Amino acid sequence: MSDDQLFLDRSRGPRTGVPEIVYGPGKSTAQVREAMRGLLAGGVSPVIATRCSPDQIDAVRSMWPDVVVDGSTVVLNALSASGRRVAVVTAGTADQLVAAEAAATLHAFGVSVERVNDVGIAGIHRLLDRADDLRRVEALVVIAGMEGALPTAVAGLVDTPLVAVPTSTGYGSAFEGITALAAMTASCAPGVSVVGIDNGYGAACATLRILRGAAR
After folding, report:
1. pLDDT tens digit sequence for 103-154
2. How far apart are CA 40 and CA 38, in angstroms?
3. d(CA 72, CA 66)
4. What is the Cα–Cα distance from 169 to 8, expressed in whole angstroms?
């Protein structure tokens, strides 16, 4: 397969601040590997592939043994540490794959990530115990399923910029993330930004824009 067939957008990074990424679902292992190879050959960095299957990850590792893998996200050519600090906050263990996608993307751009796990509001004391940690970073990615209340609780405690991610985790009336999405967009805490269901990558990109804006 040639680069022309892949339609790689190598100028996206300079144009938007975030280069084209490789989305794993719907692609063969060869297509994922070839897309990453084409981006590397074009001088793109970082090179990121998300939602990769185990077979796709193995195919990438067979060509680049030093690839960084976090959950289903793989990264090549990560940028050097920028000194910027973000916390990725999760309500529960079931949200970890989305959190890994967000954290891996932020790491790829040189951002230091602190993972604050299992602080959902069913155990609100755990969140309160970490409030000072959430004030020390420059931005937050807050991830929750079920009724999606965690971002509102966090935004009521700290003044840190916050991007909320609803996940498809939850019982019947969670409707695979629709309830959490609706709750987050209806948050009574001002200033909560919300991305789509399970979109850890999108939350990371929104956070990168926040960090770049703060640096201007």
Report:
1. 999 999 999 999 999 999 999 999 999 999 999 999 999 999 999 999 999 9
2. 5
3. 16
4. 33
* pLDDT above 80 (res 3): no
In what helix (H) or strand (E) does residue 146 lie, and over which residues does it extend? Answer: none
Q: What is the dihedral of CA 19, 22, 23, 27, to 10 degrees?
A: 160
Q: What letter does residue 95 receive in the DSSP assignment?
A: G
pLDDT of residue 17: 79
Residue carrying the six token digits 């309160």: 128
Q: Which two tokens mark 16?
A: 């938007």
Query: Residue 10: phi, psi to the nearest 5?
Result: -75, -10
Alpha helices, DSSP H, located in 42-123:
54-63, 96-108
Our CA dihedral for 49, 54, 60, 66, rounded to 10 degrees, sits at 90
- pTM of this structure: 0.90
d(CA 197, CA 98): 9
CATH class of 85-215: alpha beta
Tokens of 97: 């794959």
Tokens 């910029």 appear where?
161
For 191, the 3-state DSSP assignment is coil
User: In sequence order, what are the residues at sequence separation of 6 or more whose Cβ sits closer than 8 angstroms to the Cβ of residue 47?
Assistant: 19, 22, 36, 39, 40, 75, 76, 77
Q: Is 175 left (phi over 0), alpha (psi -120 to 50) or beta?
A: left
